Amino acid sequence: MSAPSSPTADEGKLGQHILARAPQDYRPTTLPTGWENQIEWDEQSLLWNFRGVERRVAMAIRIPVTITYEGQTYRDWLLIGYEGGSGE
């Protein structure tokens, strides 16, 4: 998959919103060097339970993030699920 072009204003706002809502212990959250090549995709449909309701997730993306907490740096993952039927 090729690298995306520069983000639009809305894409930038979305990224800022996601990072601002990260758990307090996960701030600051940064992207590790070469993160674009570490993204994982899965197009296998599954169900996620979100706020007590089952949601059909048609595709998910897993993005590496780096978190520094109490002087220690950790690798963790941001998981985003695309809900819906994928046009099916």
List low-pLDDT spans.
none
Output the structural class: mainly beta
| Total of domains | 1
Binned, the helix content reads 10-25%
Sheet having the most strands: 5 strands, antiparallel
Distinct helical segment count: 1
Mean pLDDT metric: 79
SS strand fraction = 35-45%
The H-and-E topology, N to C, reads as HEEEEE
The dominant shape is: globular
Distance between the termini: 23 Å
Radius of gyration: 15 Å
DSSP strand count: 5
Explained architecture:
The chain has 88 residues and is mainly beta. The chain has one domain. Helices cover 14% and strands 44% of the residues. The chain is built from 1 helix and 5 strands. The chain has one helix at residues 9-20, and strands at 29-30, 40-42, 46-50, 53-69, 72-83. Strands 1, 2, 3, 4 and 5 form a 5-stranded antiparallel beta sheet that branches. β4 (53-69) and β5 (72-83) form a beta hairpin. It starts with 8 loop residues before the first helix and ends in a 5-residue tail after the last strand. The model has no long low-confidence stretch (mean pLDDT 79).
